[in-house]
Amino acid sequence: PVIYAVTPTYARLVQKAELTRISQTLMLVPNVHWIVIEDSEKKTDLVRNLISESKLVATHLNAKTPPFEQLKDKDPRWKRHRGVEQRNMALKWLRENFQPKRGKGIVYFMDDDNTYSIKVFKEIEKVKKVGVWPVGLVGGLNAEAPIIDPETGKVTGYKSGWKPNRPFAIDMAGFAISLDLILEKQEAQFSYMMEKGLQESEFLSYFTTKEELEPLADNCTKVYVWHTRTEKPTITGIVPGLEV
Ligand code: UGA
Ligand code: MN
């Protein structure tokens, strides 16, 4: 199957570093199609050049977050939804380009700041409809993980330090969905109407139920992706002529 890795990204000092890490992870993954969506009015040369130098099969899009949702410098980040516009743009692109059913595709929302083991992509390849696995360093725990009933092998709940009773207490990095399902459920998308932190839950509700989830990564006992966050650097000046 082709893995469609959907990466929203926005301009900031660490952007090139983040995209370098992500793109060089993807270079180790066979059959990946990288969809990069810039949070900007226009596509930038920085991102364009980085994608072309990576030689990855890629689609470069842009979709600007509307002003009412933009994070102010002093806002804590949970005050705003992040990546909504960009992921919806990727969904639109997939639906416009791959109708009718294309088969053998899997969509994974891959934020630009997380850390991904190449092992997670081996798990994604196994997804039939919706696959799930643990995510490290998120939800107020060392890892957030689906709870599996050893008898039935099905998901019965979630270990999370943050609203464990969410319909799906799973971070964006902890699931992947078959492209056919994405194409089938045309109306499924992210929205600013959703409660903060419930994007994943509400989006997954369009496609599946807890009982139908496919537990991966050794029955959800292994962590292959980490919700790392990059410290904002404090700089006191700009050296001219250097793109960072
Ligand atoms: C958590 C989840 O891991 C995200 O997938 C989810 O979108 C977010 O919460 C949320 O609830 O909205 P967090 O680490 O707080 O993530 O979010 P960021 O990593 O700051 O942003 C997620 C993605 O959106 C990143 O790929 C980032 O580059 C992009 N983004 C962020 C933008 O495109 N524009 C922005 O203004 C901010
Ligand atoms: Mn993040």
Ligand inventory reads: uridine-5'-diphosphate-glucuronic acid, manganese (II) ion
Major sheet description: 7 strands, mixed
Please identify the oligomeric state. single chain
Rounded Rg:
18 Å
The CATH architecture category equals Alpha-Beta Complex
Within the CATH hierarchy, at the fold level, what is the topology?
Answer: Spore Coat Polysaccharide Biosynthesis Protein SpsA, Chain A
Order of helix and strand elements from N to C terminus:
EHEHEHEEHEEEEEHHEHE
Membrane topology: Single-pass type II membrane protein
Cofactor: Mn(2+)
EC number: 2.4.1.135
Pathway: Protein modification; protein glycosylation
Task: Please tell me about this protein's structure.
This protein is of the alpha/beta class. The protein has one domain: Spore Coat Polysaccharide Biosynthesis Protein SpsA, Chain A, CATH 3.90.550. The protein contains 7 helices and 12 strands. It has helices spanning 15-26, 45-54, 84-97, 119-124, 179-184, 199-205, 217-220, and strands at 2-9, 32-38, 57-62, 105-109, 115-116, 130-132, 135-136, 143-148, 155-159, 175-178, 214-215, 225-226. The chain has a 7-stranded mixed beta sheet, with helices on both faces. Strands 7-8-9 form a 3-stranded antiparallel beta sheet, with no helix packed on it. Strands 5-12 form a two-stranded antiparallel ribbon. It is globular, with a radius of gyration of 18 Å. It starts with a strand and ends in an 18-residue tail after the last strand. The model has no long low-confidence stretch (mean pLDDT 95). It binds uridine-5'-diphosphate-glucuronic acid and manganese (II) ion. Manganese (II) ion is lined by residues 111, 113, 229.
